[in-house]
TrEMBL record, chain A:
Domain Cytochrome c assembly protein: 28-191
Localisation per UniProt entry: Cell inner membrane; Membrane
UniProt-listed InterPro entries: Cyt_c_assembly, Cyt_c_biogenesis_CcmC, Cyt_c_biogenesis_CcsA/CcmC
Function: Required for the export of heme to the periplasm for the biogenesis of c-type cytochromes.
This protein's name: Heme exporter protein C
Similarity comment: family membership: Belongs to the CcmC/CycZ/HelC family.
UniProt lineage: Bacteria, Pseudomonadati, Pseudomonadota, Gammaproteobacteria, Methylococcales
Transmembrane spans: 28-50, 70-91, 98-120, 140-156, 163-184, 204-228
Keywords on record: Cell inner membrane, Cell membrane, Cytochrome c-type biogenesis, Membrane, Transmembrane, Transmembrane helix, Transport
Membrane topology designation: Multi-pass membrane protein
From TrEMBL, chain B:
Name of the molecule in the record: Heme exporter protein B
Job description of the protein: Required for the export of heme to the periplasm for the biogenesis of c-type cytochromes.
A Pfam family matched in the record: CcmB
Topological relation to the membrane, as annotated: Multi-pass membrane protein
Assigned protein family: Belongs to the CcmB/CycW/HelB family.
Compartments, as annotated in UniProt: Cell inner membrane
Length: 253, 224
């Protein structure tokens, strides 16, 4: 692989060795937690106290500070999973498999949170807990895609084979997500249009936007913490017989 | 043997195997008719209601029939070891897999075309939608076999893969269902359906090209 500079490939090779990664994750998690808590505090303070009340939706709009970042994360994690699936299939990198499978329950969790908060918001705004609206429905289908990944991994005994199966499924899923999204959108839409991504002139005021973006970054850090914890556990489970796990246990005992 | 002859040989072999077990061939068809029959029993026999629901009912039933028939796609070849022979053959597995999917569609998808108009009449679907129903079935039932093949290839090594298969495949069927039943629905009210049919055709063509690759990769994983 001559087109990858040597230091980069060295970094990847070193990071992908389980004991090194384990130690690295241990070192990073406290720092990530501090950053996450700072961002979360700032985002919640800005969103719940500083941001003004919406002239139409009153205070109930404030649920977007959970709902929107969770919905973003639900898509973001699936795309990440597909990328890791590609890496796992092409370079047979064990760490990519571990990260892929550790990400799935977290992504499913974010999808679930987005669905529940959306439903809680829908009750006062639309007068009903659930409508068969395009975005809600495609989010629900995304949840099923996550559950499919999780249960396929659980169903195959041999974990290396399971990881390959899951990588293929994640790649197939990521090709389908836009198709599903646009077909469902074409089918029915009630959800309010995008208000943030209109970059030239967002239809959301800056005092509401800044806390939202802070929360979005905070959620990314939360994902990093959670995925590193889950990956550590998955590595321990996979490598119970290896020398470095024994050494680790002896050190902790 | 050049690849194209291997491709035809696979199709011929699978069709021959299917015709030797004719009773099994009819099963998806009976299932399709049965599920459609359940709907009037469950929701009531008001003609207006049934007419409004007809495109959706026919398409959901077709989808379930396709899902049930999927398990047979690689199962017997996996059990008797011919799948391993295909993996060992010098030809690209994806092409052979495409042959198997086409044969599977000819056996399980095509018969739905014959019975669907009859069911449409039972449910009171307007006659002007009949042509569209046929067209959507021709375009979309191969899509069901193609997309389903990925799921079957992933689960064929498992002893109880049935429920898992539906969890993997049904979400991916959503666009097919939306465009196919949407087209029939619009045709029933006399609206143009060109857009839906074109999208279905586009999905079919891209699936024909793309699906064999992950399916072959998944089969390699399942056999090892």
């Amino acid at each position: 692989m001559s087109w990858i500079p040597a230091p980069v490939s060295r970094f990847f090779h070193r990071t992908s060795s389980p004991p090194y990664f384990y130690a690295l994750a241990d070192r990073f998690i406290p720092w990530l937690t501090i950053i996450f808590l700072l961002l979360l505090g700032a985002g919640l303070y800005g969103g719940l106290y500083l941001a003004p009340t919406d002239y139409q939706q009153g205070d109930s709009y404030r649920i977007i500070y959970i709902h929107v970042p969770a919905a973003w994360m639900s898509l973001f994690i699936y795309v990440l999973m597909a990328i890791m699936g590609g890496i796992a299939l092409i370079w047979r990198m064990k760490l990519a498999e571990v990260m892929l499978i550790s990400s799935a329950p977290i992504g499913a969790g974010f999808t679930f949170v987005a669905l529940v908060t959306g439903s809680l918001w829908g009750k006062p705004m639309w007068g009903t807990w659930w409508v068969w609206d395009a975005r809600l429905t495609s989010e629900l289908i995304l949840l099923f895609l996550y559950l499919g990944v999780i249960s396929l991994y659980g169903a195959i005994e041999e974990k290396r084979a399971a990881a390959r199966a899951v990588s293929i499924l994640a790649l197939v899923g990521v090709v389908n997500i836009p198709i599903i999204h646009y077909s469902v959108q074409w089918w029915n839409t009630l959800h309010q249009g995008p208000t943030v991504s209109k970059m030239d002139k967002p239809s959301i005021h800056v005092s509401m936007l800044v806390p939202l973006l802070l929360m979005a970054v905070a959620f990314k850090f939360y994902y990093l913490i959670a995925v590193l914890q889950a990956a550590k556990l998955e590595l321990l489970k996979r490598e119970t017989t290896s020398q470095w796990v024994k050494a680790l246990l002896e050190k902790q005992a | 043997m050049p690849i194209i002859r291997a491709f035809w040989a696979i199709i011929r072999r699978d069709l021959l195997l299917a015709f030797r077990r004719r009773a099994e061939m009819a099963n998806p068809l009976f299932f399709f008719v049965l599920v459609v029959t359940l709907f009037p029993l469950a929701v009531g026999a008001q003609p207006n209601l049934l007419r409004a629901m007809a495109p959706g009912v026919i398409w959901v039933s077709a989808l379930l029939a396709a899902l049930l028939s999927l398990d047979g796609l690689f199962r017997s070849d996996f059990d008797d070891g011919s799948l391993e022979q295909m993996l060992l053959s010098p030809h690209a597995l994806s092409i052979l897999v495409l042959g198997k999917i086409i044969a599977h569609w000819l056996v399980t998808g095509l018969p739905l075309l014959l019975i669907a108009p009859l069911l449409a009449v039972f449910l009171g679907l307007p006659e002007q939608a009949m042509g569209t129903l046929w067209l959507t079935l021709i375009l979309a039932t191969p899509l069901l076999s193609l997309i389903g093949a990925i799921g079957v290839a992933l689960t064929v090594g498992l002893r109880r893969g049935g429920m898992l298969l539906s969890l993997l495949v049904l979400p991916l069927y959503v666009p097919v269902l939306i465009f196919a039943s949407g087209a029939v629905d619009r045709a029933a009210s006399g609206l143009p359906v060109g857009a839906q049919l074109n999208i279905l055709l586009a999905m079919l063509l891209s699936a024909l090209v793309l699906v064999p690759l992950p399916t072959a990769a998944a089969l390699k994983m399942s056999v090892n």
